Amino acid sequence: MSAADSNPRSALAQVIAVMPRDMARLFQGLGDDLLHELEEIRLRAGQPLELCLRQRSAFVAEGGELTSSPHRGVRVSADELAQVLQRLTQFSRYAVEEDARHGYVTLPGGHRVGIAGRAVVEAGRVRAFRHVTSLNVRISRDHPGAASAILPVLYDRVSRRPLSALIVSPPQCGKTTLVRDVARRFSYGDLAPDHPGLKVVVIDERSEIAGSVDGIPQFDLGPRADVLDGCPKAEGMMMAIRSLSPHVVVTDEIGRMEDAEAVLEASLAGVAVVATAHAASLDAWRRRPWMERLFASHAFDRYVVLSRRRGPGTVEAVLDADGRPLRRGGAEAR
Amino acid sequence: MKVVGAALVMFACTLLGFRVARGYRERPKALRQLLQALIELQSEIEYHATPMPQALRAVGTRLGGWCGGWLVEMAKVLTEPAHAPEIALQSVSLASATNGSLRDEDAEPFLRLLRSIAVADRDHLQQPFLAARADLEAAIQAAQEEANQGARLWQYLGALAGVFIVLLLL
Prior knowledge:
Chain B: Keywords: Membrane, Transmembrane, Transmembrane helix. The complex is a heterodimer. By secondary structure, chain A is an alpha/beta fold. Chain A has helices spanning 8-16, 21-28, 32-37, 78-88, 97-101, 175-188, 233-243, 257-268, 282-286, 291-296, and strands spanning 38-44, 50-53, 57-60, 66-67, 104-106, 112-122, 125-138, 155-156, 161-162, 165-169, 200-204, 225-229, 248-251, 272-278, 302-307, 314-320, 325-332. Chain A folds into two domains: 8-138, Beta-Lactamase, CATH 3.30.450; 151-332, Rossmann fold, CATH 3.40.50.300. In chain A, the strands form three sheets. Chain A has an eight-stranded mixed beta sheet with strand order 12-11-13-14-10-15-16-17, with helices on both faces. Helix content of chain B is 82%, strand content 0%. Chain B has helices at 2-48, 52-63, 65-79, 85-90, 94-97, 108-118, 126-169. Chain B has seven helices and no strands. At the A-B interface, α4 of A face α2 and α6 of B.
C-alpha cells in the first residue's frame, strides 16, 4: 500500500520524494489534520508555495506554518521547479512525452501533476512544454466505500447484470475516487449478497485509477480486476473486450470521438462501461461533440452527477438512460 | 641463501610487472562491458521507453558483475531525493566499481548520455546514444593499442627490473 493508505503521510510520500530537500522538510512539518485536507500543491517559479485545502488555500511560510499573506510565503525558485520536474519525469522526458504533451505527468500513486509554461507547437498541436513555470500536484487518495451511495443503482437485480454508468462532474468533485471504488466493489462482488464478483478491466490511461507503479496497481482494486495501465482508452476498451472477457470496463474521462465509439462498441458487446466525464451537468456533457450520439444510443444506463456542495463526492443526481432522475440531491458518496 | 633471495626478488618484480600488464589488458575488456551495457540500455530506452532509473536497474540486473552493480547503484542514487541528479550520478565511482581497471573519467560518455536523454523526446534519443557509442568505441581502440604496447612492456620491465636488482645486490 502506498497512496492507497489512509495515513496522509504515506499518501504524500511519493509527492515529497520529488521535492528538493528544503521543500520536502516544509511538508514534513505540516500536521496530519492539514495533510488530510490537502488537495493540491501549487508550485510557481518566483511565487510562494501554495497549498489548496478542502475549503481554503494558504501559503507555506518559513518554518512550515501556513499564512494567507503571499509575502510571507516561501518562494519557489526556477531551479527548484526544474529539479521537481526532473524527478517527476524520472530524468526521462521521453517516457512521459505523450502525457506531458497533454499538460500533465502522473506520479506513482496516481497523483496527477499539471504543467504550465511555454508550449512548443508543431503543426498546430502542442508537442512539448519548455520553460515550465508552474506545476500543480493533485493529491490522489483512496476512499474505500465512496461508491456505497450509488452502488445499488449500478446493478440490475432482475437481469443480475451490472449497468453502464457515466459519472459527470466538474474537476475535483471525486469522479476518479468514485470509479475506483466502483471497480473495487464490482471486483469483490459487493453488489448483492448472492452475487459473485465481476471481472473488471480498468483502462487507466493516466495511471490515476489504479495508481500503478511499474504496472503494479497501488490502490486495492479487488481480486478480479485487470489493469491496462497507460493504455489509450478507446484502444484499451477494444483490447479488453476482445481478449480479457470483462463484465465491466472502468475508465476515466471520456470525451473524444474514438472514446464514444469504443463505449458504444462495448455496450453492443454486452459489456458494462463505467466511465467519467468533465461537465457541470448531463446537459452540458451532451453538448460536447460526439456525446449527444452516445446519449441517444442509450450506451449508458445511468448518469451520476457529482458536485462539491457538501465536499468532494456529493451525489447531486442519479439519472436514467433518458436523463430522467432516479434520485436527486445531496447524498454524499464519501 | 643468496640464491633464494635472488629468486624471491625476481619473482616479486616479475609478478609486479604482470600485475601492471594485467591492468592494461583489463581496461579494454571493462570498456567493452560498458559498451555492451550502453547497447542494452539503448534498446530498453528506445524501444520500451522505460524511464531511466528502471532501465538502468533492468540492464544492470541482467548484466551482473561490476558493470551491473555500477548501473544498479546509479539507478539507486537517481531515485534518492538527497541530491540534485547530476551530483548524485557523479557520486557513483566507476574506478571503485572496476577496482581501478577504469578511471572515473571513463564514465563521462555514459554520464553525458544520461544527461542528454533526460531531457530528450523520443524522436531525439538516437543521437546521444550514437555519440556515446562512438566515444566508447574510440576509448576501446585507444585502450587496446595501449594494452598491446603497455602489457608486454610491463611484463619485460618487471622481469628486467628483477634481474637488475639481483645484479646490484650480488
